[in-house]
Amino acid sequence: MQKFPFLTLKQSLLLLRISVAVIFLAHAIVRICNGTIPRFGEFMESKGLPVGVAWVWAITAYEIAGGLLLLLGGYTRLLAAGFIVLLLVGIVLIHASLGWFVGEHGTGGCEYSFILIVALLVIAAEKRPEGGV
Questions:
Q1: Which candidate, 1, 50, 75, 88, has a CA 20 to 30 Å from the CA of 104?
Q2: Distances (CA, A) of 83 to 80, 125, 132
Q3: Across the chain, which distance is largest between two alpha carbons, in Å?
Q4: Alpha-carbon distance 43 to 58, whole Å?
Q5: What is the pLDDT of residues 84-119, one digit of tens each?
Q6: pTM
Q7: Minimal CA–CA distance to 22: which of 130, 116, 121?
């Protein structure tokens, strides 16, 4: 019997990739289902970005399409880079001013985005089969 964590490195990387993909998919789907795209768009405009709703729809589309592709294991490096850019912009526009902690000690800080960026770097670093992207 294998010792803790009971997974091989390959299985762990697969679990990480699937989990991160599900997180991005969930964010996008909840944004659509809860109807918060217009409010998020207004927020983006208050930060100086024109046509905020269009930006939010573009982010949402990337999270859905990118999340599905990441889930399936395609274009992982390219997708990870795109998600990292989204997260960095989110840190600059939203989270940095709210501090480090997301919950309990704060209200929407950087720590969640930080750990997602680290996870995406690990996903991007995974050795892909020949011909894999």
A1: 88
A2: 5, 14, 19
A3: 57
A4: 15
A5: 999 999 999 888 888 888 776 667 888 999 999 999
A6: 0.88
A7: 116
